[in-house]
Amino acid sequence: MNKKIRYEEPKMPESLRKLMEIENDPPRKKKKKRPEEGPRSTKTAKKRPSQKSSANKTKKTRPSQERQERTKKSSSQPIKQPTRKVAKPATKQVSKQATKTRPRPNQKAQPTRNARPRPDQEGQRRPEKARPSQTRPNQKAIQSKKRPNKAVRPAKRRSRNFKAIPSTIIYGLTLLINFLVSGGDKGKYIKGDRREKLDKTFYRILPVAFVGLTILIMLAVLVHRDQATSIAENRELEQRPKFTISSFITGKYSDKQAVHMSDQFPNRAGFIKTKANLDRLMGKKEINGVYLGSDGYLMEGFKAENPNITKLKVDAINKFANSNKKLKVSMMLVPNKVDVYSHLMPKNAPVDSQTDYLKAVTSMLSNKVRMVDVEQTFNKLKNSEQLYYKTDHHWTTDGAFYAYTDFCKALNIEPTSQNNFNRSQASDSFRGSLYYKTGAEIGKPEDIYLYLTQDNAPVITKYYDTKKKVPSLYDSSKLSARDQYEVFTGGNHSQIKIRTSVETERKILVIKDSYANAMIPFLATSFSEISVVDMRYFTGSLSDVINNNDVTDVLFLYNVNTFNADSSILSINE
């Protein structure tokens, strides 16, 4: 059998192997990446790869040529020869890279495409190398050309937020107050030298301004004239107390002087108005003791006093009835609109129930005092009739008429029918006490109506404090004053006596507050004489009034708020 011979390559002779080693190029080292000199377009890099290689080759041979030229120039005489400007390498990295990649002497330089002919060393001047910024197109310009032109949208107008104006004003005021009081944070916007000067002037002016303001207030207090009453608060104001050594030692003078300063402070109403407007801007529903109810109603709250004080007042009335057994004593406590129109009050308003208060007072009265209940009648009529003014704490003329009807029924007297009166409008611009008490002047003007008898029955009204006699129960001059409710009997007086043309032996004494002023014209149609006493201003004796006027009936007429707060009724037995 033939044996299988394994194939072996023939050995190459030594002469051929040396020729192969000479012709084969050694492996080239990887070139380091050249640092980017600026943005280059991708298109130019793809189109001209050979041009870059040829440029690199020309750079590699330049240093040796430059050395030869320098040696020739130094050896020969100075002859004018054409010079050429040699472009310096852009960076050190480029020069290092050129030295590393020089061609070997045995290696032939291959011709490249688009290679420029090398100029003659002596006859021609080598053109300057252009900067990269001149040869390379701007990348941003290329990108802007590529991008399609988008439609320019019109800029949206910012909506002005007017709700932020009050908060901005308040913030600015707080910054101003902070600067005036504590000097502010001047380090943020004032330099050191200027800051020291401002501090010196500020602390010099501050005590002078404080002393000047104090002197100005003292002069205003001395010049200011005291006012007798406050329409806005519906009360008398404290007058200047008399100085005595005993009152000064006991401390009563200083206490009265403090109250006087508070009541008679200059421009007191203006300060109250400013505070009220700030409270209203903050969304408060209670301003200076007045609640902002629904449907335009302004209402005073109610806080029941100590039951022991209420019992003292009721005991004084019981004692009066027991000491005047011949008299028919009645009592009418009129609930305020905070009770009748409680559904119009703000939610969760901290007020006590006047219904419970009326029940407590009724339970304390003796059998000789008849209690006239008008609360039930008002609760029936509150949705169909306007029983109270919206901006005042008083009841309307209609409310007074329905109360008069209940009183006559309780005394078994025939009340005068509503058809026997002419309902006449006296004013359409009435603004009540609560309108002024808020300080913010909240509410619309209202109407005041008068009930005039059809037969124009004559009456004579005598005012003891002013010593005047008038043939009417109304004072029309008050309609042009601030408190138009004073049109009824000319306002509050200490004592009034009214004589009517009614043929009856019944004469009544009314111990009252301002609610009775609107009801007296109706009583004038049922009694021959009416004596009116306001215990807040009366300084005489009730027993003298009763004996001198042959009184047969007595009516205590108060609204719940006044009876609860005022203690003048405790002096009825003096």
UniProtKB/TrEMBL annotation:
Keyword terms: Membrane, Transmembrane, Transmembrane helix
Composition-biased stretches (Basic and acidic residues): 1-27, 63-72, 117-131
InterPro entries xrefs: DHHW (IPR025945)
Any single Pfam family the record assigns to this protein: DHHW
Compositionally biased residues, Basic residues: 143-160
Skewed-composition ranges (Polar residues): 132-142
Chain ranges passing through the membrane: 164-181, 202-223
Superkingdom, natural source: Bacteria
Chain positions covered by the region annotation Disordered: 1-160
Protein name according to UniProt: AlgX/AlgJ SGNH hydrolase-like domain-containing protein
Organism: Peptostreptococcus stomatis DSM 17678
Upper classification of the organism: Bacteria, Bacillati, Bacillota, Clostridia, Peptostreptococcales
